[in-house]
Hints:
Number of helices: 24
Structural class: mainly alpha
Number of strands: 2
Strand order of the largest sheet: 1-2
Largest sheet: 2 strands, antiparallel
Strand content: under 5%
Mean pLDDT: 88
Helix content: 55-70%
Low-confidence stretches: none
Radius of gyration: 22 Å
Amino acid sequence: MIDLYVEWRKSVALTGTVVKWLAVAMVVPVVVGLVYGEDVWVFVASMAVFVAVGLALEQLEPDVELGPREALLLVTLAWVGVSVIGAVPYLLAGLGSASTLSTPVNALFESASGFTTTGATVMGVISVERHSHALLIWRQLTQWLGGMGIIVLMIAILPEVAVNGAQLMESEAPGPELQKLTPRIAETARVLWLVYLVFTLLFVLVMTLLHVAGLAPGMDLFNAVAHALSTLPTGGFSPQTDSVGAFGPVVQWAFVPFMIVAGTNFALFWYLLNRDVESFLGNREWQTYVGTSVVVAAVLAGLLYLGVAPTMRLGGQTAGALENALRQAAFQIGSLLNSTGFATSDFARWDTAGQMVLLFAMFVGGSAGSTGGGIKVVRWLVVLKVIRRELFTTTHPEAVQPVRLGSNVVDEGAVRGVVVFTMMYLVLFGVAAVLIALDASRVNMGLSALEAMSASLATLGNIGPGFGQLGPFGSYLGFPDTSKLLMVLLMWIGRLEIIPVMVLFTGAFWRS
């Protein structure tokens, strides 16, 4: 018998606690179901399943503390657990219907895509609006819960999970570093969730005021809440088949600053609330993130103005139309650079130049400590500085040149971690693209190389839409189940920043 150095039962039991408390979130779709008279039984039954499974797993709990390895295992198990259990409402709602979510693999794909804030969907040609309001709000809510982090939420409200909370937050939080804003980690978790909640409510308020003023037809309270639950977590799900393209120019412009906020390190807003403006404006990653967004959007706007996009049902004419070109560019870059995944134009039909600009934006990612996906701006900054240092020390071998971000010296261990992460990300992206292409070829799906690459990047980077049939108004429904399960794995790996998941597959984690 192999002696394990990981008390896995502790991690499984706490996963049960997370699943049990997730049932509380079901109150929201139950209320919506009561208002619209739809699918109430689905969520009442789902609540019972969540509680029963959670209580059953809690019975495994041994009388030991949560150690660093158990914390790593808990983070991965919790994300797998909520994705699996979160598929239950889709399966129940699809009983006896033609819904594309009625099969286990499709339901798991949609649930995992929601909790990991990927925004890829398998709803297919069946219009999104044909599903109940209760099911759609659950779909949106999964993204909001996953955006700031389910474990971070549990640390904020449950003392038993707050034990070893720093290790848990470091494993779950997007980015290579964790900023401790208060003396206690549980208080830091509460601060982050409070900032997140405030911006969510502010989004609802802005959209509601625009609707009342007659500037946002169609953006009723349900749509305002639904899109708030998807915008701040950089999720991309929409209860509208046409995504944000279903609304007018004023609404589309109003989305842009909130998407930029969602890709910003939320810790910076805490400094701003404490009147530490210098820490906010002087943050090198934030400066690079905003600067990159503006420059790339300006390049894309120029291309759109010159005519790289055809006149479409959604998006309209951009060639020679300055406001529309600026709006489409600002929205698409604001959405894809930080992995939000909303769309106002079918960029899958743009020419190569426009799509290459979007592909570049997809590789950038949001800021560390934001809800954005991708490689993250701070990692690219470190990688570029490492390249620059290597070029310098090649000609000056006696020089000692540390990597700096602003006035701060980056620890060499952190530098190594950034380089390793970036290489693993690129390798996983390439290998997954090949596997997706081979699997599509096996079933004669007719997938192009660009579509296979975008499927890999969109799921690993938690972006959502890709190119071709995976465009912003397309679907992942046509992929074989094997590819869908691979992409579910990519979503989990991407959301947990690769290392916490991959380390579980090493013998050293379990035995040494």
